[in-house]
Amino acid sequence: MTGLATTTSAATNTAPQQRGAQGGGDPAAVIAARIRAHAAGLPDVDAERVVTQINDGLWPGATEAALRERAIEITSATVASEPTYSKLAARLLAEHIAEETASEGVVSFTSSIAASRENGLLSDELVEFVAAHGAELDAVIDEAADDRFEYFGLRTVYDRYLLRHPEHRTVLERPQHFMLRVACGLSQSVEEAAELYSLLSQLAYLPSSPTLFNSGTRRPQLSSCFLLDSPKDELDSIYERYSQVARLSKYAGGIGIAWSRVRSRGSLIRGTNGHSNGIVPWLRTLDSSVAAVNQGGRRKGAACVYLASWHADVEEFLELRDNTGDTERRTHNLNLANWIPDEFMRRVEADAQWSLFDPKETPELVDLWGDDFDAAYRAAEAAGKARKTVQARELYGRMMRTLAQTGNGWITFSDTANRTSNQTARPENVIHLSNLCTEILEVTNDSETAVCNLGSVNLAEHCSPAGFDFDRLEDTVRTAVKFLDRTIDLGFYPTAEAEKANRKWRPIGLGCMGLADVFFKLKLDFDSPEALELSTAIAERIAVVSYETSARLAEDLGAHPNFNETRAADGVLHFDHYENARVTLGRRWEAVRERIGRTGLRNSLMIAIAPTATIASIAGCAECIEPVVSNVFKRETLSGEFLQVNRHLIAELKERGLWNEQLRQAIVVAEGSIQGIEEIPADLQARYRTAWELPQKALIDLAAARTPFIDQAQSLNLFQASPTIGKLSSMYRYAWKAGLKTTYYLRSRPATRINQTTVSKAKPAQIETVAEDVACSLENPETCEACQ
Amino acid sequence: MLLDPGMDLTLRPMKYPDFYDQYRAAIKNTWTVEEVDLASDLTDLAGFTEQEQHLIHRLVAFFATGDTIVANNLVLNLYQHVNSPEGRLYLSRQLFEEAVHVQFYLTLLDTYLPDPEERTKAFDAVNNIPSIKRKADFCFKWIDSVFDMRELETAGDRRKFLLNLICFAACIEGLFFYGAFAYVYWLRSRGLLDGLATGTNWVFRDESCHMNFAFSVVDIVRAEEPELFDDEMRRQVTDMMEEAVEAELQFAEDLIGDGMPGMTVKDMKSYLEFAADQRLERLGMEKRWGSENPFPFMALQDVQELTNFFERRPTAYQTAVEGKVDLDEEF
Fold first, then answer.
1. CA distance A200 to chain B (A)
2. How many domains does chain A have?
3. Which among A384, A415, A777, B97 would be 20 to 30 A from A532, CA to CA?
4. Is B226 on the interface with A (CB under 8 A)?
5. Assigned domain for B193 exists
6. Does residue A42 share a domain with residue A178?
7. Residue A466, in any domain of the structure
8. Residues A439, A448, A461, A626: which is the catalytic one?
9. How far apart are CA B106 and CA A653, in angstroms?
């Protein structure tokens, strides 16, 4: 079986190998020549070293294809010593892909379309569009653009995105064909297709994975996330939601679903005169249902359940991901999020009590926020409706424990979300939850499932050591917004509820990635005032251009149907909610406000910063707005493990003449940290602190400063190597105070680790004879005199 | 002294606080078999070639008994002679972890081998598969060498005990298991058997800790009784290591045969020798082989993981988090 194929059928996977064997000649010699050719022009790559390693590991019947695969494996594992090997690995992989597609007769864009069409993979519209403009489109392809990929990016495209033959499982398009196919699927003219293709092939902007997977195909499900309102407190509604979730999951959508309307444990069921078992059994069914629906054949479905923090089952909810206790009350496939009102946080601050309610008794709470919620909540307390009263800090502590132990149980703030949203001008329009990645905040109700189409600008591509290119950013954003808006009309919707909401609100979510690369390129510390200023300025620019573009689209095509229900219709824009917003483009904002007053907006929401895990891999940049977790780490994905290294750091170390094997080992031994490594100067140690080493306050401050320009939300991970309840409770309280609408995973690190296999040079520990002379230790306070 | 016969019950003042620290760190990494999803592995297995089938069947057959043997030695020998209540706390925890591993491999075999006959054969591998029997015999030899000793009275007794301890840490956990993990990560590097790899990540982490504990016992005994670790002892350790490498190598020949892409007997030999050298160095001895690690996928295990949450369950969380709600801490 060849590892390059991610499919599961050995018989089909071996096809390219066999072809290689028929090529004649000595396979090892052929591959050696190819390695030498590809290595030409790559600085610091030693082709002979790779060739020797290949020859040392030969096995009987080794084919060209299998040896090339081995060469790819060897070179891609060498990136930690010399990042340029990634390019060599990518070139070898590109050669493999070209050979594989050629075996299906694919040699050009039009022939790739022909091959996919023959296998019934493409929409009629796309086929007709390409048929009408074949020669022009073939000329658009930039063959040299493949060389922009790092290995992991190209590998991700090959493993996951290229269309495959239904039986052979061979790929039917090369990476550039794929990008032009995606562009054509969203375009009305060759000029438009070329415009979008140009951004994609430069890796300057990438739409989200569903669009990359499905654009131009027979089932163009282009949306990333779906937000479902809580089922009503009745059996039929609950089962109807399972069915909606299943249909949305099937087409690779990420699911957010609220559960706050469903009655809690012990609540009376009138029809049978029995008592409810609460929400846990329902969520167990949801858990199984989500796991059963297989997305695109391999990945399991994914969903996040939101529960309001006043719901009486909240304590059991927080235990759903524990790995101890009754397995009948655990849901290992569901993600969990807390939907927290301000009143709860105020009571945590005041160390006051908190009441938990059965929504059957207090159905009004689900659809209220702000002062109305506070009043209704207190009225319910006064009326003695609480099922249980706890110390607010005790519940808050439990939330923190769940975060620390599972990373799950995300903290999201319901009042902040509603207060600042463009969609919530009218009391009947309420946001009840965020999505699977906590960057989407949209109104839902029983008959409307919120949808969002996402895309992200690669900021790294808009930055050189000379500075950040705001002009180019503007061009990119204009194109991105136009095409994101387009996806709303072209998309296939798995449920009527989703289509209804999306056509009415037309929300999109433009985000970014590679912010950490920008800071590295410009030599800015992540927690410096300059970094905060630049990051906020970028956010403001993306926002203002998006609003301008949406206003222009409204002038051309009309405002979204219920524009009149939005705050923008009253002249209120998102940043108006923030007194301290760092607005630097005041005149442009006033101009766009005036245009919106005349003709409205095409989209009710425009900005959301998604986690970008996979598309940042393709683009070879840091994920969204995140600092790097390590300077050397591996990415674990469904198709294997891939070594990643901070190219910026190694380039700087080389520049200063410091890079060598000894230093590399020291960094690997330190698990990718460079703190305290003597040879590395202090300025580099500061700049290349990892996410574990940066003050988390800085991450929150950056996020808070950009929030006025994020009309939805951002997927903000926070990091604590060794979390304690004290640290976490301070951190999330600060996040709330800073005005964040949502937070995402809490990442932490294992308490123990494996013995490193390939670098550790462990020696016997020097042991003092402890029996006689007990060492100073916190374990021995009573015998230690040194501290007294 | 640590190996003095007896049943020390006194935790304060604590003589070996490092044992207690290791115990607490281990508790933070509790995992359960139910968290491992083996479903996707079945799809992979269905597409395996005959050669790959053979390899995976042999591999799981080894796993079927490996941890049980380690657990037996722990209870019958180690627990008896490591005379430190905090040390025995760690060993109790280790015993629990071995039980989880046994359960994991039991579940794995039940899942991978639906045919009852084949399943029975796999569980009986120590008797009917020669390449596994040889490894098991090696383990039994070193269990038997100390089995009848109730107390470690003489220097000779203590040397025998140390050899048993080193055998289980350096040869069985540190070489047999390390060898077996290499096959798992080799498959994983081809995008195969993700479920097995997830469980293995956790087992690997536990086994690393077990090995560290055993080596820290050796360190302490050597500090307390330096005369025990003499030239004769060093010779015996080297011989034992060579025998273990031989046994693991014939297992490799059985599994790999003429070789598969990226996995040859020649490379496996270098890897095993490289690992064995590391164990010797950990014991303060000279390298015996001087081989290099040929497996790029093993180098990958040395760095931090970053998991795409939608694809794999991250393995990097802790249990038993401590502290109280406090709104004014640094973070």
1. 22
2. 3
3. A415
4. no
5. yes
6. yes
7. no
8. A439
9. 49
Mutation pick from A169, A635, A754 vs chain B, by most beta carbons of B within 10 Å, is: A754
**Nearest CA to A175 among A233, A248, A91?**
A91
Asked if the structure places residue A140 within a domain, the reply is yes
SS3 B133: helix
- Check if the beta carbon of residue B205 is closer than 8 Å to that of residue B318: no
Distance from CA of B81 to the nearest CA of A (A): 17
Domain that holds residue B269: 49-310
Cα–Cα distances in angstroms (integers) from residue B294 to residues A42, A71, B186, B270, in the given order: 24, 13, 12, 7
Do the Cβ atoms of B20 and A779 come within 8 Å?
yes
Residues A281 and A414 both lie in one domain: yes
CATH number of the domain at A290, please: 3.20.70.20
pLDDT digits (tens, 9 = 90+) for A550-596: 999 999 999 999 999 999 999 999 999 999 999 999 999 999 999 99
DSSP classification of residue A570: G
Q: Distance (Å, rounded) from C-alpha A712 to C-alpha A707?
A: 9
Judge whether B320 lies within some domain. Answer: no
Q: With b meaning 16 or more CB within 10 Å and e meaning fewer, what string describes B11-28?
A: eeebbbbbbbebbebbeb
pLDDT digits (tens, 9 = 90+) for A67-89: 999 999 889 888 888 899 999 99
Task: List the Cα angle B57/B310/A691 in 5-degree steps.
Answer: 110
Nearest partner of B97 among A752, A671, A747, judged by Cα: A752
In a domain, B28, yes or no: no
Q: How far is B127 from chain A (nearest CA, A)?
A: 31
Whether A484 is covered by a domain: the verdict is no
pLDDT digit string (tens) for A189-237?
999 999 999 999 999 999 999 999 999 999 999 999 999 999 999 999 9
In a domain, A214, yes or no: no
Tell me if residue A435 is catalytic: yes
Q: Which two tokens stand for residue A636?
A: 């674990």
CA B60/CA B106 separation, integer angstroms = 9
CATH number at residue B255: 1.10.620.20
Which domain covers residue A637, as residue numbers?
Answer: 630-684
Query: Do A275 and A164 fall into the same domain?
Result: no
**Contact across the interface for A779 and B29, Cβ inside 8 Å:** no
Query: For A757, which of B215, B220, B302 is closest by C-beta distance?
Result: B302
User: Under an 8 A CB cutoff, do B296 and A761 touch?
Assistant: no
ipTM, 2 dp: 0.77
Last residue in a domain, options A420, A441, A461: A420
* Sign of CA pseudo-dihedral A707, A710, A713, A718: negative
Kindly give the interhelix angle for A109-118 and A175-185, rounded to the nearest 10 degrees.
70
Query: Angle at the Cα of B251 (from B249 to B254), degrees rounded to 5?
Result: 115
Interatomic CA distance for residues A363 and A344, integer angstroms: 18
Last residue of a domain, one of A366, A395, A420: A420
Which residues does chain A have within 8 Å of residue B103's beta carbon, measured at their own beta carbons?
A: none
Give burial (CB, 10 Å; 0-12/13-18/19+) of A418: buried
